[in-house]
Amino acid sequence: MIEKTQWHPVAQAHEVADKPVSVQLLEQALVLWRDADGRLQAFWDRCPHRGARLSMGRVENGHLECPYHGWQFASGGQCVKVPALPEFTPPARQCVKSFEVQQAYGLVWVRLESGDGLLPVFAAETDAHLRKVNCGPYDVAASAPRIIENFLDMSHFGFVHEGWLGSRDATAIAAYEVEATANGVLATGCKAVQPQSNLHSTQAAEVEYTYEVTAAYTAVLTKIPEEGTSKQGWREQIGLFICPLTPETSRVWFRLAVADFESSDEQLQSFQHTIFVQDQPVLESQLPKALPLDPRAEMHSAADRMSSAYRRFLKAQGITFGVC
Ligand code: FES
Ligand code: CO
């Protein structure tokens, strides 16, 4: 499964502190914890002794301790202590499976099998002019590809986000361009008139976005700055990072990279929350939950060319999880 060789977000980085944390990725239960040097560890959440959940244990002297008989595991997975046999040195094969893990964009990323792929790009991350705030997690009863597609879709704004991102009186979608990129798909020239496009909007404004799929379950919206405003040249972005839990359920984070330094984190998160809870019930109602890759399985309009390009990309990548 190609998805196993790709990096996926599994938790907010700050949630993994001095206690083990249970997470799920591609139907696999994992435990995250930090060793004595603060380095992240990701193990299979099953003790090799009698199968107890390691995430119910604790971190003891920089080792992960199983809740059942107290076996301790070091960074990398080696068992280093069997309390019932104090003089015993466990051999190298006495270990728990560990996975590659890293921290980025305020999130913990894991891949289940080795590969040569890099983390999905989020260009605004390195722009010091932009403030970064994460929103989520949201646990959503929808497949990751359905959630990505919803994010790429402007023609629902007038209905799902009426009075916020769109209105029923202005539903036409102007033609936009779609192109394949090295790691995904890019849509440019996406325009909409939005009654309340952000926290501070006082009147409707025309906005222009680009949408880019940067990995199978990651997408980035970039706001094209308006000419002649104080924010000219600032490319605000919203990243959508999804953890595929099961083929039909997902955990979702947004990362905002904005030029707004006045609002509180809570105010920024609250706006994003308002928008996403409008999307969530419709998303969870869609059937089939897996995204159909056969072009004949659902009907399409010219306004859906980005979604069609995304489906072709998933097919070309050989993605099987969350699609049908
Ligand atoms: Fe983990 Fe026995 S089940 S130490
Ligand atoms: Co929406």
TrEMBL record:
PROSITE patterns referenced in this protein's UniProt entry, alphabetically: RIESKE, RING_HYDROXYL_ALPHA
Keyword Metal-binding: yes
Name used for this protein in its record: Rieske 2Fe-2S domain-containing protein
Domain Rieske: 7-110
Entry keywords, A to Z: 2Fe-2S, Iron, Iron-sulfur, Metal-binding, Oxidoreductase
UniProt cross-references to Pfam families, sorted A to Z: Rieske (PF00355), VanA_C (PF19112)
Classification lineage: Bacteria, Pseudomonadati, Pseudomonadota, Betaproteobacteria, Burkholderiales
Gene3D superfamilies: Naphthalene 1,2-dioxygenase Alpha Subunit, Chain A, domain 1, Rieske [2Fe-2S] iron-sulphur domain
